[in-house]
């Protein structure tokens, strides 16, 4: 089993980590990484520059999307040499293997592997199955990967859109719907059972732990800094746990926040370390709120509040088509306020940091957070029937893979 990843954002690594931890334990595996600098740089520029953001947004729809896909896939396929050599070397070392499963959680490496898969099969004599996990609930066509044997998506809505596109271009891809794969650490029940998030929101004095993971591209730092400073001035109940990779982009940000008494800095040297620290934070502390972009983190809303990862999600301004589509996913399941009367699991923050801070304080004082953390939370019948919500996405991934390739 080979897991490939490209740390162009932490989402791909988080899903890889969840799938590795939940894999069938008797199957050996290796990690094969590649650094897609292009995607990382584009993400950082478009997140911080309004003009670049507008241009990039336009390129994600219609004819511009098709042009972008053709150009990007051409570049990927014609730069697949290193991936081909790495895979051939890894497969050749396993003399006893007659079949290899390659799991790709980034479309860049998925396209490259799909392009060289048949050549590798012919030269090594080993059956190779390419499995793709889509890491947002997005119908962006770049996730239709030629050569993929099986692809997983978080919703039927996205499955239908990608299947339609794949038929149009005669790819004949097979898509399966599972709840978004989340780390087994986060899907455990809170222990001891008597410790509940609701107890903190009922109290007038208990500390409220707020996780603030900083994106791999270090975007939105001024927003986060302003929000934390404002909340800290008005209330001493909030304890902020800021997780960030040490880099030139985060140096000043961490220096400023590190001077505040209610801010705890959790820093790592690389993306993999940050993901491990994030899981440890949730494992060792009852996290009540998380301030995050509506990227893959938004999918923790499919966990009920009685699980370790079931914090209340406060979503910052979305960046890019995939984050808007993730919000649409939450709306369809009544997990974020729309026209539904259900108890939400996530809520969008105002765009201005001081207004966002005031909203957080109001959420505490008004009882909104108390209501959102209720043990009475239930998914709707429609959501449960959809197979798109719940904590078992990573387990379902492996059940379907084994059944499909048995």
Q: Report the uncertain regions.
A: none
**SS summary, helix count:** 16
**How many strand units?**
12
The secondary-structure class comes to: alpha/beta
Mean pLDDT: 91
Rg calculated over all Cα atoms: 21 Å
> Strand share of the residues?
5-15%
In the CATH classification, which architecture of the largest domain applies? 3-Layer(aba) Sandwich
* SSE pattern, N- to C-terminal: EHEHHHHEHEEHEHEHEHEHEEHEHHHH
Q: How far is the N terminus from the C terminus?
A: 15 Å
Q: What do you see in this structure?
A:
The protein is α/β, with parallel strands linked by helices. The protein folds into two domains: 2-182 and 391-405, 3-Layer(aba) Sandwich (Rossmann fold); 197-382, Glycogen Phosphorylase B (Rossmann fold). It contains 16 helices and twelve strands. It has helices spanning 10-21, 37-48, 50-58, 62-77, 81-93, 107-124, 156-168, 197-202, 221-234, 251-257, 271-284, 321-332, 353-365, 368-372, 381-386, 393-405; strands spanning 2-5, 30-33, 99-104, 127-133, 150-153, 175-177, 208-213, 238-245, 263-268, 289-292, 312-315, 346-348. The chain has a six-stranded parallel sheet, with helices on both faces. Strands 9-8-7-10-11-12 form a six-stranded parallel sheet. Strand 5, helix 7 and strand 6 (175-177) form a beta-alpha-beta unit. Helix 2 crosses helix 3, helix 5 (81-93) packs across helix 6 and helix 9 (221-234) crosses helix 13. The model has no long low-confidence stretch (mean pLDDT 91).
